[in-house]
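Suppose you are handed a protein chain with no further information: no name, no annotation, nothing but its sequence. What can you learn? This example shows the usual starting point.
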Amino acid sequence: MQTQQRIPFGTVWTPCPEPDNGFPILVDLRSTAAYRQCHIDRSFSLPFDHTTASRADFPWSLLPDRQRRFSILVDSNDSDIHSLAEYFDPGPDFDPSSWDFDGTKSRAENLGRLLHSIVASGWTLHRVYVAMMRGFWSSCLSDPTIRVVMLEPSGADQVLPELMVRGMRLPFDPSPAVAHAARLLWGPAVANDEPPPRPIGTVLDLGCGAGRDLAWLAHTYAHLHGLGLDAWKGSVARTEALANRLQLSDRVHAVRAELRSHGRVHPASVAPLLQLSSASLGMPQPPPLALVLMHRYLPPRTSAAWLRQLVPVGAALLVATFELPRDMSLDAWVAEHQSPTHHGNLLVDGELTRDASADLVASDDRAIVARIGEWGWGFTAANGFETIMSRIVMAEDGQRPIRWLLTRRVLLAP
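A reasonable first move is to predict its three-dimensional structure. Written in structure tokens, the prediction is:
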């Protein structure tokens, strides 16, 4: 039986108790036109159209991590508040994973279903504000810590200006490793009210997932392009959809492909694109490579030489994945942590920054794993790499160690 919960309505603006650098996460579900005409600075516009959307189409991946508090702003009138409250508590048989929007119902009723599903599915909802409730905007205007942005209505109300989109605080955060590496490489983010500079570099994300890291980098650093690679077509679709929503479709792209042993790319037609030397897949020519990301992803170890050659002089590589402690066996790791269960996604101490034994260089991955203590990826000074950062951090569970390595190519290998 589901635990019945009520909407945490807020009648006046109250900052979330866990703000991010003074900017709480506020997801604005009102229409694009309403957002453009009046919104809270840095809030994130996520228009909700209950008449055409389905539950499967709602961009759940854009919501914050479930443990992160955030607020929602909706646009309704006083007569709809009862419907919102009623449909937020639809009874013990409500299944948050199987319901759908009903185009015959009112917007308030469908919003209630959405809000119930958000909370019942584990998200931490701080407040739901109703824009048309008396006192909401006046409380915002009287708070010196926030800024209300208002524009005159225009014929372009269905499109947000680029600088307005760039000024949004994204509701999700990048991986900590990516955020830290970005600060080391490019410093603080460019001020969001400045015109975007000309793009000067491309981030290549191997195993891009839903594209959050790429989108965050391109949104935060307007001089970057992003190219994601993933073997699952769903990841490619999500990355492209996210780029389109953030008006980044001219700078962020994704392709479906798989890295196989010895640096082979399948399908082979994608290989030139990873070298940023071909526009044959119908994408604009990206600028030179600036960073290669491998976040919780390792290609076959036989791809080490290919990967080193992929990184040009001046570009960097970030690896952030699980590492087996020096004094722990693989069996002990699996017994204690469950995953990863094999060395395919689990480093051993020191392997990134040493060379492999000469007789292993031409071996297959099975032979390499059997002698993993003698293997190395070769991101060494002798191969032209300079370590910017190398550290162990703990995963979200506080138990599994993750190796962060940020290295830059400074010389061509002799």
